[in-house]
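User: Working on a comparison across species. This one is TetR/AcrR family transcriptional regulator from Nonomuraea terrae. Can you predict its structure so I can line it up against the others?
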Amino acid sequence: MDTRERMLHAAADMLARGGRDAVSTRAVSAAAGVTAPTLYRLFGDKEGLLHALANYGFQQYLAEKQTAMTDDPVADLRSTWHVHVNFGLSHPAIYALMFGSTPSREGDRAGREALAMLRDIISRIAAHGRLRVSVDEATQLFYATGVGVTLMLIATPPADRDLDLATTALDHLLRATTTDAEPAARVPGVALRAVALREALRHDDQNDNTLTTNEQALLADWLDRLAAGNPTSSA
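Assistant: Here's the predicted structure for TetR/AcrR family transcriptional regulator from Nonomuraea terrae:
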């Protein structure tokens, strides 16, 4: 373990035991057996240390969240949702630093990367024709709800926690955003196809040589309105 990693281990231990306020440059330096100038050289200041600590926690988060993907993106969304919540409950202090401080400096990377991972799964749901709203809307809904539920559970004393809340919230979101809980006859086919086509075009490199920039923007606007069930312009 090199000096930098030793200091991050010490800071993570202090964060877990006493929260953000317990992490001081003097205490971390002493616990890691280095001088204060070493910490300043490696991290700049306390905010730089917290930023590095959030990234350090994110590596742990990635290691736990990298579950094998299946052919069912909705099932993958369920499994990664529970991995996310369980990570927060297992590492409450580092989770709060990573997600509870957004959009602060230390929370930025964790938030961006987690959002990108979530969006990839939801894009697959759209490509399968099983998403009832736009990819962007679904991503924001799942991200905001997942982080909010996890932070609320962390803030609740363990004896009072309703661990079924996370599953209940997930079920509500899936019913609102996917077709899995709806009879096929009730699913608006045009809207679903618009969502799927919008996402397919987003990742189609050949489309760049077929449509002009203005045509791509116009088509994207039409597909977004069809996906939302609003084919008429509000202008």
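For your comparison, note: The domain at 60-227 is CATH 1.10.357 (Tetracycline Repressor; domain 2).

User: Helpful, thanks.
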